[in-house]
Write a structure and sequence with these properties.
The protein contains 15 helices and 14 strands. The protein is an alpha/beta fold. Strands 5-4-3-2-1-6-8-7 form an eight-stranded mixed sheet, sandwiched between helices. The chain has a six-stranded mixed sheet with strand order 11-10-9-12-14-13, sandwiched between helices. The structure holds adenosine monophosphate. The site of adenosine monophosphate (AMP) has 11 residues, from helix 10 and helix 12.
C-alpha cells in the first residue's frame, strides 16, 4: 500500500511517498517558492536528484507537479496516481478536539478552519495544502496527523496555566505542546529498545525548534512547549521560557508593539540573540571553540535549561528509564549530549563519553555507560513515517 505524506508550509510543500509493505521511501522532495516563482526538488533512492524551475501559483499547482513527477515515465516511481491509497497531512495544531490522527472530512476541516487563530503561521498553509490535495485526489482518504494530539491526555495540572481560568474557557489558552509526532515516534522506539511498554522516558527533540517531553506508558505526561512553540528551552531564534513580565517590560522600555515584541522573542532571541552570531548550532559551536564568550554562553544557557527540564520531569514521573536525544542537534552534536548528561550520575544518568564521541551518525545508538541505571539513546526521528503509519492504520 502506498501512502503519500504532505507537509504544506506558506511557500513550500514537502512530500514523501512510502511503500508501507516494505517500509521504503520511494520518492521524496520539496516544492519551494510557491506563489513566487517555483523550484521543485525530487529525490529517489539510488538515483540522481531532479531539480527544476516550475511556476507554482498556489498549493494546487505544486501538488499537481508532485503527482506528475511521481508518475513520470523517467522520473516517476508509480504507474498511476491510483496507486496512492491515501494521503497523510502534517498539521501542527489539532486544537482541543482533534485528539487523535483523523480522516479529514468536512466537519474536521471546518474545525481546523475555526482554530487558525491558535496557529496563525502554520494553520492556513496546511489547510490550503489539504484542500489542494483533496481537489486533485478526491476519491481517497486524507488523514490529518497533529503535533498537538500526543499531549491530549495530559492531566489538567500539566496544561492549565495559573492565570484566570476564564481565559482558558474564553480563548482556549493552555499548554498544547508541539513536535508530538516526533516525540511519539522516538519514545515508542525507546520503549521497544527497553522492552518495557510502561517505561518512563524523556525525549529531547533538539533542533532549530526544540522541545522536551515526558512519556509514561506510551502517553505524554508533560512537555516544554506550551500555548505556542515559544515555551521551554532556548532555540535557534526563540527565547524559550522567560519571566513573562520581561515581555511587557521590553514593550514599554523599547517603545515597541506587541507584534514587534513577538518578533523579537521568536526571531531574534535564543541562540541567535545571545550569541549575536547565528541561529545555527554549528556556527555557534565553531565560534565557541575559537573562544567567543557569547557563543560559549549561548551553549551554556541551552544546556542549563535542558538539564532543568529533564530534572523536573524525573521528579514529576518519580524516576526515568531512558533519556532520548533526537533532531538536528540531538542527533549530531556530541558535545551538547555530553554536557547535558554530565553530573547526572546521582540520578542514574551516565553516558559512555568515548562512544558518544565516535558512535555512527544517523543510526539508533545506546550511548549509556556500562551499568548506568538510566539508558541514554540517540534515535533519529522520522515524523513522516509516523504520519504514513497513522494514515495506513486509519485507512486500510
Ligand atoms: P533541525 O531543526 O532538526 O533540522 O536541526 C537544525 C539544528 O541542528 C541546527 O541548529 C544545526 O546547527 C544543528 N545541526 C545539524 N547538524 C549538526 C551537526 N553535525 N553538528 C551540530 N549541530 C548540527
Amino acid at each position: 500500500m502506498k501512502i503519500l505524506v504532505v507537509n504544506a508550509g506558506s511557500s513550500s510543500l514537502k512530500y514523501q511517498l512510502f511503500d508501507m509493505d516494505t517500509n521504503e521511501v520511494l520518492a521524496k522532495g520539496l516544492c519551494e517558492r510557491i506563489g513566487i516563482d517555483g523550484i521543485v526538488t525530487h529525490k529517489r533512492p539510488g538515483k540522481d536528484d531532479y531539480k527544476s524551475n516550475v511556476d507554482f501559483p498556489n498549493h494546487k499547482a505544486a501538488i499537481e507537479c508532485v503527482l506528475a513527477l511521481l508518475t513520470d515515465k523517467e522520473k516517476g516511481v508509480i504507474g498511476s496516481v491510483d496507486e496512492i491509497a491515501a494521503v497523510g497531512h502534517r498539521f501542527a495544531h489539532g486544537g482541543e478536539k482533534l485528539k487523535k490522527s483523523s480522516i479529514l472530512g468536512d466537519q474536521e476541516l471546518e474545525y481546523l478552519e475555526s482554530i487558525v487563530g491558535l496557529n496563525p503561521l502554520h494553520g492556513p498553509p496546511a489547510i490550503s495544502g489539504l484542500k489542494a490535495c483533496k481537489e486533485v485526489m478526491p476519491s481517497i482518504n486524507h488523514v490529518g496527523v497533529f503535533d498537538t494530539s500526543y499531549y491530549s491526555e495530559m492531566k489538567e495540572e500539566a496544561y492549565i496555566y495559573p492565570i484566570p481560568y476564564e481565559l482558558y474557557e474564553k480563548h482556549k489558552i493552555r499548554r498544547y505542546g508541539f513536535h508530538g509526532t516526533s516525540h511519539r515516534y522516538v519514545a515508542a522506539k525507546a520503549a521497544e529498545m527497553l522492552g518495557k511498554a510502561d517505561a518512563k522516558i524523556i525525549t529531547c527533540h533538539l533542533g532549530n525548534g526544540s522541545s522536551i517531553t515526558a512519556t509514561v506508558n506510551g502517553k505524554a505526561v508533560d512537555t516544554s512547549m506550551g500555548f505556542t512553540p515559544q515555551d521551554g528551552v532556548p532555540m535557534g531564534t526563540r527565547s524559550g521560557a522567560i519571566d513573562p513580565t520581561v515581555v511587557t517590560f521590553i514593550q514599554k522600555a523599547e517603545g515597541i508593539s506587541a507584534d514587534e515584541a513577538d518578533k523579537l522573542l521568536n526571531k531574534e532571541s535564543g541562540l541567535l540573540g545571545v550569541s549575536g552570531i547565528s541561529s545555527d548550532c554549528r556556527d555557534i559551536c565553531d565560534a565557541a571553540e575559537k573562544g567567543n564568550h557569547r557563543a560559549q554562553l549561548a551553549l551554556k544557557i541551552l544546556v542549563h535549561n535542558i538539564k532543568k527540564i529533564v530534572g523536573s520531569y524525573i521528579a514529576e514521573m518519580n524516576g526515568v528509564d531512558a533519556i532520548v536525544f533526537t533532531a538536528g542537534i540531538g542527533e549530531n552534536d556530541r558535545q551538547i549530549r555530553e554536557d547535558v548528561c554530565k553530573n547526572m550520575a546521582w540520578l542514574g544518568i551516565e553516558i559512555d563519553e568515548a562512544f558518544n564521541k565516535s558512535c555512527p551518525r544517523g543510526e539508533t545508538v545506546d550511548i549509556s555507560a556500562k551499568g548506568a541505571k538510566v539508558k541514554t539513546f540517540v534515535i533519529p526521528t522520522n515524523e513522516e513515517y509516523m504520519i504514513a503509519l497513522d494514515t495506513l492504520n486509519l485507512t486500510k
